[in-house]
Amino acid sequence: MEKFDVTVIGSGPGGYVAAIRCAQLGMKTALIERYATLGGTCLNVGCIPSKAMLDSSEHYYNAVHHFEEHGIEVKNPKVNIKQMVERKRGVVKMTCDGINFLMKKNKITVFTGHGSFVNKTTIEIAKADGTKEQIESVKTIIATGSKPSSLPGIEIDKKRVITSTEALELSEVPKHMIVIGGGVIGLELGSVYARLGAKVSVVEFMDGLIPTMDKGLGKELQRVLKKNLGFEFYFNHKVTGVTSKGKEVTVNADNKNGEKIEIKGDYCLVAVGRRPYTENLGLDKAGVKLDNRGRIETDDHLKTNVDNIYAIGDVVKGAMLAHKAEEEGVYVAELLAGQKPHMNYNLIPGVVYTWPEVAAVGFTEEQLKEQGKKYKVGSFPFKASGRARASMDTDGFVKVLADEATDEVLGVHMIGPRTADMIAEAVVAMEYRASAEDIARICHAHPTFTESLKEAALDATAKRAIHI
Ligand code: FAD
Ligand code: NAD
Q1: Which CATH architecture has domain 356-462?
Q2: pTM for the whole structure
Q3: Could you read off the pLDDT of 234-244 as tens digits, one per residue?
């Protein structure tokens, strides 16, 4: 039986990054993946393909709605959804091939098959051809990720009632896509099809969009998605059932007064969150415990209740984000090598890749109020930014929350052009515990979208923004 210092189960951004870091630190490392391609949800059916579809659909939308104003004449732009999906597949392939290259470069042994514990140091790999192989591992990192969740009474037929996975492979543009869940997936993939011409209706249980983010962001996003893409919203509605017949889907929901609604469309995208994936992992044989939400239970150092087994990424508590999984992968690898790594969970940025993009880090206003913290608010609208006017991206704003007494930045919340990239500056500032004045005193290139963060920081620190 081949023996490894570390085995990682699952090759998503948590798993493959953990494997690379373990190998860099001199450990003999194995990586087990049940699918033929490496990269997990993120590369195959998540972050990368969704962004590829968002980029293509944004080009089409601009061609139809903005080119003329820019002085570019294009006669009747048409959507070729098959080509759009084909391009996306190419992007995914290139990215997954890149992981194969990295595994070879780092001399990581890759096993293709379903991994499960035989005991706490033996792992069996069940391969697609029916054969099985066992390996020994001193330490194991579980990085098995997550799968889409559903709701009681909903059968996901993968044809008309679909999850994000199928929504990335449609062969036609829906006429009317009903999205259950006004969270990240619903709004990103809803945007893709709304830009391509679909009517999109969102049924959301809570009273606003992206409900875990600062409330101001959800409100502005709602306004813009309605204005630009014609989104229709049903808030405070609990979906009670979905049926599909031929090409028609019917979604039934109750509002909080018990009133019933029925919405008919041709596709229903179920985007109500994801659940940790631990199926057939043999956790009982290794003695690994789950928490009350079905996630692998870990201590503050991502160690399970079994001494030599760790877990990271979507399968453990915390935000289900690729960069959170990656950081945890590096954390555990360094811990295993005897180092003293550190994770700052409060500074994991969250981004929604709609247009305008939404990005945030640190505490929301709602959280600060709940903590009874005294804070100052500074904000700056993109309509006052010269760069945003040049690109006609004037929706949205930047909001900086700073401690009332010390001026330390406690949270930054942005909605606007390229905020997905802009948020990095706020993360760096907060990692170094900057004050709003620190950001305000840094020279920002003109004209850039980033000047809006400086202006919001000026507003927070001393109500002295220059351009409002
Ligand atoms: P995963 O990426 O889920 O990988 C787990 C891997 O383990 C899978 O390949 C699985 O096949 C394998 N596996 C499971 N069990 C076994 C087993 N027993 N044996 C062998 N292999 C096994 N996050 C962002 O940060 N930014 C985004 O823009 C973003 N966009 C997203 C868009 C969509 C549509 C979706 C669905 C998700 C998106 N996410 C995004 C979330 C992101 O994909 C996840 O947070 C991330 O992939 C989690 O990484 P992971 O390594 O924990 O698990
Ligand atoms: P989510 O948690 O972002 O949103 C789910 C939404 O569904 C919530 O707003 C919730 O209130 C709503 N909901 C739940 N039950 C409902 C019901 N019965 N009726 C109506 N609405 C209901 O989950 P998601 O959008 O499915 O995404 C899953 C995970 O994938 C997220 O944790 C997210 O972090 C990750 N993801 C991240 C990105 C990104 O970083 N850009 C993109 C896509 C996915």
Answers
A1: 2-Layer Sandwich (3.30)
A2: 0.98
A3: 999 999 999 99
